[in-house]
Amino acid sequence: MAKSNYITRAGWQALDKELKFLWKEERPMVTQAVSDAAALGDRSENAEYIYGKRRLREIDRRVRFLSKRLEVLQIVDYHPKQEGKVFFGAWVELENEEGEAKQYRIVGCDEFDPAKNWISIDSPVARALIGKQVDDEIRVETPVGKVLLYINKIWYETEN
After folding, report:
1. What is the pLDDT of residues 119-138, one digit of tens each?
2. Which residues belong to any copy of the Transcription elongation factor GreA/GreB N-terminal domain (predicted)?
């Protein structure tokens, strides 16, 4: 399944901030540490040198990924026309058949976070929710089987 290129403004800013930190702060610091370690002599048994080079490769790989990804991401801002329906960026309160309610936010695949109950727009639940409104029900295929969910509430947090 192809991942979407949608992201919230705050999500884009967080990725951009990470890229700038890695490139302007962490990479120069690690480069200096590797240079200092190399000056100490034998590099084959120099742990600081070996780990520093490894960290530089990790930083460079992440910088390349972020640079390419930020170019193709499309920021989706809240619009008042979205009110009352589920669209990208929405918070949704869902209730299962047992009456248990849980809140989720629909975000881009680059910013989903299970700890915050942020689900990817590409997830089966999010895809089933798009365009729905309060009191609608959705059926979603999950790893434990088909689940029936009811939409109790929809709201948006506007970002500055």
Report:
1. 999 999 999 999 999 999 99
2. 5-75
